[in-house]
Amino acid sequence: MNTREAIIALNMLPKIGPVRVRRLLERFDSAEKILSADAQSLTSVDGIGRETAEIIRDWENRIDLSLELDEIKRRGLTVVTHGDPDYPENLRQSYDPPLALYIWGELSPRDRYALAVVGSRKTSMYGTNTARQFAFQLASSGLTIISGLARGIDTYAHEGAIAAQNGRTIAVIGSGLGQIYPPENMVLAEKIADGRGAVVSEFPLNTPPSKKTFPMRNRIVAAWSQAVVVVECPEWSGARITANLAGDLGKTIYAVPGPIDRPTSAGCNAMIREGAILVTGGHDILDDMATLPLGLTSPELKAAEPSELTGMEALICGALENESLLLDDLTVAVGGSIPEVSATLLKLEIMGKIQRSAGGRFSKK
């Protein structure tokens, strides 16, 4: 057994957790020695009681490590641990970093410039459009967009980042990679993993989502990101918890203002009153981050400039020049496939070139 496998085993055990494992590592020097230690040695460590020691001693009967390792290999996943050079540095420096990160896709050095975009699961059209536009603008400028793959703002943030040329996004989920949640975002997860970033989890593969796992996910989003943008959220929500966690870590919090009579904007408006920076576009964030001591002086981070339309983008805009069309009719008109046309329409919406009506028709702005 090597060190990575031993860490995976400890991560799979119930009632242990990263904090206890780090205390054990200070005493035993390696994860392998922890798994082979006797009960008396284990209980001599602060915070390790008799029950925890028994779980560790009985680890081979409590988990199937070989099955987990085989499944990781079969799915083409990678696992990075705290000591690996690919482990995100912001997480490494946090109080409670995950023992291991299961990764579907690839991490990149560019991901050190990660910005969280979060918000409510229940969104308005205002929140939907804003999340897409912010993520598109920021990803176009070289930032990696990190969010939680949840319904609502998280989903639209990932979509906006993917629509940007060379955009990257990290989805940190509150379940194992074998239990993608919500299930309707599996296609989105596949797009992210297929060259546009990574889907990441600290949980063993078949861990289901729960009330416990989502707050754990939120702490990773808060710690990994350089700053947090809250697009739309009610007075109390997971997005606000993520922002509070990031604030406790000294991260900058940006909030998008919303109508004062909408509960979906109450959380953002309250955060602005409490000191969050009001932003109305990606340029506000880029301008502000250039003045912050975050190490964000990379030439990659520059204001996004309008790009010329690609072939499919130009075809769609031409087809919508004088009429509005449904997706099926537009697909026939431009001679493309529905997936290609759908993806291009999303990008054009974010760029402000076209608009979608309530009836599902597209027209040029």
Largest sheet: 9 strands, mixed
The succession of helices and strands, N to C, reads HHHHHHHEHEEHEHEHEHEHEHEHHHHEE
Please report the total strand number as a whole number: 11
Structural class: alpha/beta
Report the sheet-strand fraction: 5-15%
Q: What general outline do the C-alpha atoms trace? A: elongated
Q: Count up the helices.
A: 18
CATH class of the largest domain: Alpha Beta
Rg, Cα atoms, Å: 22 Å
Termini separation (Å)?
A: 61 Å
Helix share of residues?
Answer: 40-55%
Mean of residue pLDDT values: 89
CATH topology of the largest domain: Rossmann fold
Number of domains: 3
Which strand order does the major sheet show? 1-2-6-5-4-3-7-8-9
Q: What attributes characterize this protein structure?
A:
single chain; about 375 residues; alpha/beta; DNA polymerase, domain 1; Rossmann fold; Arc Repressor Mutant, subunit A; nine-stranded mixed beta sheet; two-stranded antiparallel ribbon; 11 strands
Written description of the protein model:
By secondary structure, the chain is α/β, with parallel strands linked by helices. The chain folds into 3 domains: 1-73, 5' to 3' exonuclease, C-terminal subdomain (DNA polymerase, domain 1, Orthogonal Bundle); 109-289, 3-Layer(aba) Sandwich (Rossmann fold); 311-364, Orthogonal Bundle (Arc Repressor Mutant, subunit A). 45% of the residues lie in helices and 12% in strands. The protein contains 18 helices and 11 strands. The protein has helices at 3-12, 17-28, 31-36, 39-43, 50-57, 59-62, 65-74, 89-92, 125-140, 153-163, 186-193, 213-224, 238-248, 266-273, 282-289, 311-319, 327-334, 338-351, and strands spanning 78-81, 100-105, 114-118, 144-147, 168-172, 197-201, 227-230, 252-255, 277-278, 354-356, 362-364. Strands 1-2-6-5-4-3-7-8-9 form a 9-stranded mixed sheet, with helices on both faces. Strands 10-11 form a two-stranded antiparallel ribbon. Strand 10 (354-356) and strand 11 form a beta hairpin. The longest helix has 16 residues, at 125-140. It starts with a helix and ends with a strand. The model is unreliable at 292-306 (pLDDT under 50).
